[in-house]
Amino acid sequence: MQETLKILVVDDDEVDRMAVRRALTKAGVQMELSEVGDASRAIAALKNISYDCVFLDYGLPDLDGLTLIKTLRSQEIKVPLIVLTGQGDDQIAVELMKAGATDYLSKSRISSETLAQVLRQSLRVFRAETQVALANKQLRESNELLRRKNQELEAQRQKISLQNIKLLEASKLKSQFVATMSHELRTPMNAIIGFSQMLLRTKSNEFTDKHRDMLQRIFNNGKNLLTLLNEILDFSKLESGNLELKPERFNLSNVVKATVAELHSLALEKKLSVVVHDELKDPMVINDSVRVRQIIVNLLSNAIKFTESGGIQIEISDLPEDRVAIAISDSGIGIPRAELDRIFEAFRQVDQTTTRKYQGTGLGLAIVHSLVQMMLGKITVESELDRGSVFLIELPRQTSSLIPQKIDAKAQESIINSYQKSR
């Protein structure tokens, strides 16, 4: 079905208006045709009615066609404008097109074919320009929206950056404070431990059994407090990136067995068996023996602490690609599955209450995890409630060099994130 076009003819000459009407009718154009004889009525009609096309005489009695076109365009009246001229001046045609005319046609060339062709072409051009204008408008709106969003994101980024700077500064100050306080507290604590140990070794009859029991408690609690202080100090060094590895060549089997021997009395108190399975073909490794011992002490102490009956097994074995494995398994209380992904976070303990049965800072596993990362190794855990846990450490047999290794930026960031999550 052919569309019906609403067409306005603006011409003060009735004969010329009739010629346009006849030519369009003969061409078979379906239309609703309106006619006016001057510019003022044309402007009024175009303000009130939406036309599909306007045939506009160049020489009107109140305004010339060029001025009328400029007036219509200045008032944002958008409609195809076909100017009908009585003269073939090319310069006038150029000015008309610049002002906003869609096309122009000499009145001497008006026929059904030419008029229909110009009409179709003008409608096609106008609709294409309208679509382009709409697309450009939408593009400008999208660009403006993106610009505002980018400004908002940039403001948020700057805010987050500032917050990160403040957090890092706070973390640095906190680490400095913790390190200073740990050093300050260790001095009197070492004195307490030393004097109580010296008194315990005294053969004087002045001390009754009750006195010796009290001295023993002072000595034991002092050692426990010193262990906690050492953990906090190590953590602050790890967090600030100041803890260094000092690689050396040592016998891994001997370090593991010596550490087990040191902690054997704790296991005996709970009547737990501790068995070492050494399957290393070559026990010599290059690493920081002090920190390796610290890792084993932390894991073995935890295994003893959380095991009430049964035993603990430590297995040392070779791995492909010149690596070694240390596995510590126990028959203790186990770890809930939901907590397995978080146990290496700083200050994280399964039981966080003040009345918990098992005491500690919650730093031991965080320190172990960070030390293993520094050694370019990895640590995994498998556990089941009431069935026990297995901690598996994989380490390279030899570090990359004998230069003291500092914790890398990624590991340091992991420690800071763990601390911030725990707050």
UniProtKB/TrEMBL annotation:
Any one annotated GO CC term: plasma membrane
Coiled-coil regions listed in the entry: 132-170
Sequence ranges assigned to domain Response regulatory in this UniProt record: 6-122
Matching PANTHER family: TWO-COMPONENT HISTIDINE PROTEIN KINASE
Family: In the N-terminal section; belongs to the phytochrome family.
Molecular-function GO terms, alphabetical: histidine phosphotransfer kinase activity; phosphorelay sensor kinase activity
Name recorded for this polypeptide: Circadian input-output histidine kinase CikA
Family matches, as Pfam families: HATPase_c, HisKA, Response_reg
Annotated EC: 2.7.13.3
Alphabetical UniProt keywords: Coiled coil, Kinase, Phosphoprotein, Transferase, Two-component regulatory system
Gene3D superfamilies on file: 1.10.287.130, 3.40.50.2300, Histidine kinase-like ATPase, C-terminal domain (3.30.565.10)
Domain spans labelled Histidine kinase: 180-399
Organism, scientific name: Cyanomargarita calcarea GSE-NOS-MK-12-04C
Residue numbers carrying 4-aspartylphosphate: 57
